[in-house]
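Open question from group meeting: does this chain pack into something compact, or does most of it stay loose? Before anyone orders reagents, we agreed to write out a predicted structure and look at it together. Recording both the input and the output here so the notebook holds the full record.
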Amino acid sequence: MNMPAAGEERLPEQMKAAMLSNDPDVVLELYADDCEVSDPAMQLSGKAGLRTAVEYFFAAFRMREFEIEEVIRQDPTLIIRSRWQVVHQGEYLGVPPSGKIFETWNIMWLVVRDGKVISDTSVWDAGELRRLEQLAT
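C-alpha coordinates returned:
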Protein backbone atom coordinates (compact mmCIF):
# COMPACT_ATOMS: atom_id res chain seq x y z
CA MET A 1 0.00 0.00 0.00
CA ASN A 2 1.32 3.43 -0.94
CA MET A 3 1.48 5.97 1.83
CA PRO A 4 0.31 9.52 1.09
CA ALA A 5 3.00 12.17 0.89
CA ALA A 6 3.45 14.50 3.84
CA GLY A 7 0.32 16.63 4.28
CA GLU A 8 -1.76 14.72 1.73
CA GLU A 9 -3.36 12.53 4.39
CA ARG A 10 -5.17 15.67 5.60
CA LEU A 11 -6.48 16.68 2.18
CA PRO A 12 -9.97 15.11 2.56
CA GLU A 13 -10.58 16.99 5.81
CA GLN A 14 -9.08 20.16 4.33
CA MET A 15 -11.47 19.84 1.37
CA LYS A 16 -14.40 19.40 3.76
CA ALA A 17 -13.39 22.49 5.75
CA ALA A 18 -12.87 24.49 2.55
CA MET A 19 -16.31 23.62 1.21
CA LEU A 20 -17.97 24.39 4.55
CA SER A 21 -16.22 27.78 4.61
CA ASN A 22 -18.26 28.86 1.56
CA ASP A 23 -15.18 30.91 0.64
CA PRO A 24 -13.64 30.47 -2.84
CA ASP A 25 -10.21 31.59 -1.59
CA VAL A 26 -10.10 28.76 0.95
CA VAL A 27 -10.98 26.20 -1.74
CA LEU A 28 -8.40 27.61 -4.17
CA GLU A 29 -5.62 27.14 -1.61
CA LEU A 30 -5.94 23.37 -2.07
CA TYR A 31 -5.27 23.48 -5.83
CA ALA A 32 -2.07 23.88 -7.87
CA ASP A 33 -1.76 26.88 -10.19
CA ASP A 34 -1.80 24.55 -13.23
CA CYS A 35 -4.81 22.50 -12.10
CA GLU A 36 -7.31 20.91 -14.47
CA VAL A 37 -10.92 20.65 -13.31
CA SER A 38 -13.85 18.95 -15.01
CA ASP A 39 -17.38 17.89 -14.23
CA PRO A 40 -20.38 17.19 -16.48
CA ALA A 41 -21.08 20.94 -16.86
CA MET A 42 -17.59 22.36 -17.45
CA GLN A 43 -13.90 21.81 -18.07
CA LEU A 44 -11.42 24.37 -16.75
CA SER A 45 -7.69 24.96 -16.66
CA GLY A 46 -5.75 26.88 -14.03
CA LYS A 47 -6.75 28.72 -10.90
CA ALA A 48 -8.45 31.57 -12.81
CA GLY A 49 -10.91 29.13 -14.36
CA LEU A 50 -11.33 27.32 -11.06
CA ARG A 51 -12.04 30.64 -9.29
CA THR A 52 -14.84 31.40 -11.77
CA ALA A 53 -16.42 27.98 -11.20
CA VAL A 54 -16.11 28.06 -7.40
CA GLU A 55 -17.49 31.60 -7.16
CA TYR A 56 -20.44 30.56 -9.37
CA PHE A 57 -21.05 27.49 -7.19
CA PHE A 58 -20.97 29.42 -3.90
CA ALA A 59 -23.21 32.16 -5.35
CA ALA A 60 -25.76 29.44 -6.14
CA PHE A 61 -25.32 27.25 -3.06
CA ARG A 62 -24.48 27.82 0.59
CA MET A 63 -22.91 24.67 1.99
CA ARG A 64 -24.52 23.66 5.30
CA GLU A 65 -23.16 20.15 5.74
CA PHE A 66 -20.41 18.14 4.08
CA GLU A 67 -19.91 14.56 5.18
CA ILE A 68 -17.09 12.40 3.89
CA GLU A 69 -18.42 8.88 3.40
CA GLU A 70 -15.39 7.20 1.85
CA VAL A 71 -11.79 7.96 0.89
CA ILE A 72 -9.71 5.81 -1.44
CA ARG A 73 -6.00 6.54 -1.84
CA GLN A 74 -3.68 5.17 -4.47
CA ASP A 75 -0.83 7.63 -4.84
CA PRO A 76 -1.13 10.09 -6.57
CA THR A 77 -4.90 9.55 -6.81
CA LEU A 78 -7.37 10.40 -4.06
CA ILE A 79 -11.08 9.65 -4.41
CA ILE A 80 -13.51 11.30 -2.00
CA ARG A 81 -17.16 10.23 -1.87
CA SER A 82 -19.27 12.68 0.11
CA ARG A 83 -22.78 13.94 0.85
CA TRP A 84 -23.71 17.60 1.00
CA GLN A 85 -26.56 19.65 2.29
CA VAL A 86 -26.85 23.07 0.64
CA VAL A 87 -29.23 26.00 0.41
CA HIS A 88 -30.10 26.82 -3.20
CA GLN A 89 -29.66 30.59 -2.99
CA GLY A 90 -28.79 31.60 -6.56
CA GLU A 91 -29.19 30.63 -10.21
CA TYR A 92 -27.33 27.50 -11.28
CA LEU A 93 -27.34 25.96 -14.76
CA GLY A 94 -30.46 27.94 -15.60
CA VAL A 95 -32.37 26.92 -12.47
CA PRO A 96 -33.54 30.01 -10.55
CA PRO A 97 -32.92 30.15 -6.79
CA SER A 98 -35.50 28.30 -4.72
CA GLY A 99 -34.28 29.12 -1.21
CA LYS A 100 -34.73 25.44 -0.40
CA ILE A 101 -32.35 23.07 1.35
CA PHE A 102 -31.42 19.93 -0.49
CA GLU A 103 -29.01 17.04 -0.10
CA THR A 104 -26.96 15.40 -2.79
CA TRP A 105 -23.89 13.22 -3.24
CA ASN A 106 -20.53 13.96 -4.85
CA ILE A 107 -17.54 11.94 -6.03
CA MET A 108 -14.22 13.73 -6.51
CA TRP A 109 -11.43 11.92 -8.38
CA LEU A 110 -8.33 13.95 -7.49
CA VAL A 111 -4.72 13.72 -8.58
CA VAL A 112 -2.36 15.29 -6.07
CA ARG A 113 1.18 16.64 -6.48
CA ASP A 114 3.17 18.15 -3.61
CA GLY A 115 0.04 18.31 -1.45
CA LYS A 116 -1.99 20.28 -4.04
CA VAL A 117 -4.75 19.09 -6.36
CA ILE A 118 -3.56 19.11 -9.98
CA SER A 119 -6.58 17.31 -11.44
CA ASP A 120 -10.17 17.21 -10.18
CA THR A 121 -12.86 15.25 -11.98
CA SER A 122 -16.09 15.55 -10.02
CA VAL A 123 -19.60 14.23 -10.45
CA TRP A 124 -22.61 15.10 -8.31
CA ASP A 125 -26.31 14.34 -8.45
CA ALA A 126 -27.53 17.42 -10.31
CA GLY A 127 -30.87 15.61 -10.63
CA GLU A 128 -31.64 16.97 -7.18
CA LEU A 129 -31.35 20.49 -8.61
CA ARG A 130 -33.86 19.56 -11.34
CA ARG A 131 -36.24 18.22 -8.68
CA LEU A 132 -36.02 21.61 -6.95
CA GLU A 133 -36.80 23.32 -10.24
CA GLN A 134 -39.95 21.21 -10.60
CA LEU A 135 -41.07 22.06 -7.05
CA ALA A 136 -40.60 25.78 -7.71
CA THR A 137 -42.88 25.77 -10.76
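Observations to bring back to the group:
Strands lie at 31-39, 42-45, 61-74, 77-88, 101-113, 116-124.
The first helix runs from residue 11 to 21.
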